């Protein structure tokens, strides 16, 4: 198939996930990445995009093989739009896309949080707006260099408008599961993302953090609290790992040797992977803690149940946005246990 016959995919959001998806998809689609000028300029200086993964795959994608843009009008000819911006920018992006997209173009939200697709849907009534989920970690080591450090397959809300695009993702090494239970999938992803705050506060790679029982006990406190809140809100998270979500806190609390044995079967993760929240703190950017731990707190308030552990984690991350501090596991565990008991 000639390059001109390939479908056009616009990726709105020049961050770790957006850059990685663009680099992986470029051989099977004409890719337009839309982002802030400083980021797009940095990618151009880098000479394009590099991607690598935990299986050893890697590739350099030259600038000439991508369209790197700062203007949302670059999405005007897209046949599919992937939104990968931070949740705080969703409303702005929705309004910008509303003025430029051709009628009926599907839009997929590959974002953290539970409500981004709904925000996009309200502004784009003439388009199929579908919730998506990225299960794996992507670290941008330097501007334009992206590494997938953990496993899992993309998931997206099932819809007929995506039929022509699923083979493109498959051919690009990014198989995408069409799901009919995306609210449950997003809830399960949020449960796993509660570790983002802990990894940011720990200031160590994910594998190192999760190898220590006290860090896992911190995560178990946050997850157990979130599961109680989900139960009060009548939300049943999907099963994204071989274990039911309700078992995860108990597994996290296992002794290190037992956990290592079991974890190797649950999730592939390499030694350099870190959370996106860690990357935000490292680069001096606002985090998404309010749509992750903060979402648990919001739901708890709505249903009149306590969520002191996630409230404390959200507060600590906001403090870290102003003044960075690396916690050790024992100190943070004691702090969260105190918050839980108060």
Portion in strands: 15-25%
Low-confidence stretches: none
Average pLDDT level: 95
Specify the CATH homologous superfamily of the largest domain.
NAD(P)-binding Rossmann-like Domain
| Overall structural domain count | 2
Query: If you compute it from the alpha carbons, what radius of gyration comes out, rounded to the nearest whole angstrom?
Result: 20 Å
Give the oligomer, counting copies of the same chain as homo and different chains as hetero.
Answer: single chain
Q: Helix share of residues?
A: 40-55%
CATH class of the largest domain: Alpha Beta
How many β-strand stretches?
A: 12
H-E order:
EHEHEEEEHEHEEEEHEHHHHHHHHH
State the CATH topology of the largest domain.
Answer: Rossmann fold
Shape: globular
Strand order of the largest sheet: 5-2-1-6-7-8-11-12
CATH architecture of the largest domain: 3-Layer(aba) Sandwich
The termini sit apart by 64 Å
Number of helical stretches of at least 4 residues: 14
Class computed from helices, strands and strand pairing: alpha/beta
Give the biggest sheet. Answer: 8 strands, mixed
What does this 3D model show about the protein?
The protein has 342 residues and is of the alpha/beta class. The chain folds into 2 domains: 3-180, Rossmann fold (3-Layer(aba) Sandwich); 183-341, N-(1-d-carboxylethyl)-l-norvaline Dehydrogenase, domain 2, CATH 1.10.1040.10. It is built from 14 helices and 12 strands. The protein has helices spanning 16-25, 37-46, 90-98, 116-123, 166-171, 182-202, 206-210, 213-232, 248-252, 256-266, 276-282, 293-302, 308-322, 329-341, and strands at residues 8-12, 30-34, 48-53, 58-62, 67-69, 80-83, 107-109, 129-133, 138-142, 145-148, 154-157, 176-179. The strands form 2 sheets. It has an 8-stranded mixed beta sheet, sandwiched between helices. The protein has a 4-stranded mixed beta sheet with strand order 4-3-10-9. A hairpin with a 2-residue loop joins strand 9 and strand 10. Helix 3 packs parallel to helix 4 and helix 8 (213-232) runs parallel beside helix 14 (329-341). The mean pLDDT is 95.
